[in-house]
Every structure is written in structure tokens, then in C-alpha cells.
Amino acid sequence: MASEEALASLGVGGASAAAHALSLPADAYGNDPRLEVMWAMKAYNHAEVYFNLISSVDPKFLKLTKLDDKIYSSFRETFKELDIKLLKPDDLKSDEAKEVWRPFCNQFEGLIEDFNYGTLLRLDCEKDYTEENTIFATRTQFFAVEIARNREGYNNVVFLSDSSKS
């Protein structure tokens, strides 16, 4: 993987410095392109690990956080009609959606580690992460949607399509 090669090229000291840099508050930086690349690599690695996880473990048994039950119940109370099988960018990014997502996410500040960090989220849950099928979301949005997809059976397609289990 390109991200693994990039991390390996940093060496132990560079990787340690990158990890430290990513732990600092965002206001400690301007628009440093190196930091943006590190964040993109971190988000990509998270997406890759998660997709491998739902490909190899029955998603209905996954517990993503200690707060899965609270996140799920609050999510479904707030977003009763949201089609999580096939999200549209406006479901997360329109002005109207942001007005609903903001208080939803903020209720988990201090409860979900890095609750507002950038994470990659698949739009169509039956497909892998690709440029066309991926949107940038907060970690809280990721957890809310993916916990619901796991509980409601939408991620079963990914798990069942893994040919290594046959």
C-alpha cells in the first residue's frame, strides 16, 4: 500500500514525530500541507482497517465504541428517515443537514475520543472505499452511520461477499 510505504519512509523517528504532530490541537497549525497529508494517511488507514474488519467479521457482532447503544438510539431518534444504505453528500454537507448534525455530534464531545476528527465514510455501503464512493465526515458521523449499518444489516453484503469465507 502507498500509505504503508510512506509511513515506512518516515523511519521510527519520523513516524514518532508524525504521531506527536497529529496529537496537537488544530489551532497549533496553519495550512501546513505536510500535516494535511498525514491526516489523509491516518483517515485512509482507518478506512482500510474498518473495511477489512467488516469483510472478515460478521458486522452484527461488532462493537465500535463503548457507547454504541447510546450513539445508535440517538442517531435513529434524530435521523429517522436517513437512508444509510446509500448516502448522498447533501445528507451530511448541506446547510440543513449541518444544522442537525452539529448538535448530534456535539452531544458526544468528551465521550467519543476525537469526536470531530476527519474520517472517511462510504456513501454506498455495498461498495469499497473509492474516490467516487467516499465522503469526508467527522468520527461521530462515521460511528453513527456505521453502527446503524451494522445493526440494521446493511454491511452484511460486504461480509458475505468476501470469497475467503466460502
UniProtKB/TrEMBL annotation:
Domain Polysaccharide biosynthesis: 35-158
One GO location term (cellular component): cytoplasm
Pfam families listed in its UniProt record: PBDC1
Superkingdom in the source lineage: Eukaryota
InterPro entries in the record: PBDC1-like_dom_sf, PBDC1_metazoa/fungi, Polysacc_synth_dom
Descriptive protein name: Polysaccharide biosynthesis domain-containing protein
TM helices/strands, residue ranges: none
